[in-house]
Amino acid sequence: MDRIKNVFGAFLLLIAQGAVFARAEEKAAPPPQVVDGYQYDRPGWFTWLKNEPSDLKDCWKKTFRKENTVNLSLLVVGTGLLIAADQSLYKKTYRWGTKEKISHNGQQRPFIKTTLPGTHYMVRLSGPHNFGTDLYFLGDGITHFSIAGGFLVFGLVRDDDRALQTSSQLVESIISTGFVVQVLKHVTGREDPVVNTRSGGRWRFFPNQKDYAKHVNKYDAYPTGHLATAMATVTVIAQNYPEYTFVRPLGYTLMTACGLEMVNNGVHWYSDYPLGIYLGYEFAQIAVRRGRKVQDQQVSSLEIYPAFVGKTPTMQAAYRFSIPPSSKDEVD
User: What is d(CA 73, CA 71) in angstroms, rounded to the nearest whole number?
Assistant: First the structure.
C-alpha cells in the first residue's frame, strides 16, 4: 500500500513544480542558455505534460522499427533466460540477504500523515527506516521527483535554463515511463516472489482490476517501475551534464543495489528488470532530444582570391558555410 499512497506525494510534487514554472513564466524570458553546443530554452508551464502524447508515440515507433530488431531480440531473449532462472535466483538472493542481515521487508514507515480536506481519506508519505528499505527507496518515485525538484530550485535561484530543462525532462520521462509500466503491470498480472504460488510466479493476464487493487502483490511484478524510473533519471542527468562523468557509474551502482534489494524483499524477479530499464532509457532519450537543441550556429569562412574576367585582372570572394544537423538527429 505504501507504493500506492506515495503516488499522492508524487502528485503533490508535480503540482508544486507546475506552479513554480507558471510563476517563472510571468517574468520576461531570458535569452536561451547555450552549453557545450546545445541550446537550452526555458521550459514553459507543464511543458512536460504537453510532450507526453508525442513521447509515447515516439517510443512505440522506435521500439518496433526495423533498425531496433537486434536490441528488441536481445531484450526478449534476455528476459526469457532470466524467467527460466528466476526461482533459483530469488532463493539465492534471499539467502544472501539473510546472511548479510538485510531486511526482507520492503515496508516503509509513514513520516507525514494528513487528511485530504473535506474527506476522511488519510494520505501518507512514507520513507525508509533501515538499510534494506534505504536501498529500496532508491527507486521510489518520490526520490526521483525530489531530484527533479532540486534541479528546479537550483535553476530558479541561479537563473539556469539547463537545470530547469533537466527538471522538466526528468518529470516528462518519469511520467511517461511510469504510465507504460503501470499499463503493463495491469495487463500481465505477474505475482511478486513474496506471494508466488508457483515457481517463477504465476502470470494472470488481464486480471480483474478490482482484485488487483485489493491484492497488488499478486499482480504487479512485471515490469519494474523502480529501475525504470531510476534509469530515466540517470540518463537525463548524464545527457545534460556530460562533464560530470561520475553520474552514470554512480547511478548504475545504486540501481544495482536497488535491484538486488527488490529481489531480496520479494517484490520483483530479475526478469522484471530488462524491459523496465529499456523503457526508462528510451523515454529519457526522447525527453532530452525534445528538450534541448543543437546550437543554431553556422560554421563559415570567407575566401578572397585573384581572378580574371576575360583579360581583365580582378578580385573575387567566396563565402562558404555549413549548418550543423538538427537536434532530431542528435539522439538516435
Answer: 5
